[in-house]
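lol ok so funny story. i was supposed to be doing the assay writeup but got distracted and ended up predicting the structure for this chain instead. priorities right. anyway since i did it might as well share w the group, maybe its usefull for someone
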Amino acid sequence: MSSVTFVRALAAALALVFAVPALADIKDYEFQLTQKELKQGDGVVVTVRLIDKRTGKPVPDAVIFASRIDMEPDGMATMAAKLEPLPAPEPGSYSFRTNLIMEGGWRLSLAAKVQGEDGTVESRLILKATP
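and the output, tada:
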């Protein structure tokens, strides 16, 4: 192998190494409520978006493996309701049906895995149930 061929091969290899985009950190993702106020009652649908904070774009196909809704903001963390996952209304959105049995502050806690990323996205979002 001539030195010119070697230098060209080395340059091509270095170009490939530096052309690979940087991997995201799990902290680059966050859940956001689509509505912060919902009408109190049974069958309420709570929808969140998972966003890549670097681009502002939604992140589809995350696996939500833990979810809970309770009244911790009003000092009643033991007052919890069931969450039933629903089909995604659009890519990057995740919906749940619940029973907001009382007016007041509710905390939605989520934990999810993002495809291709290490770590867990964890969020605690506050919403309000109104009459």
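The domain at 24-130 is CATH 2.60.40.10 (Immunoglobulin-like). The radius of gyration is 22 Å.
back to the writeup now i swear
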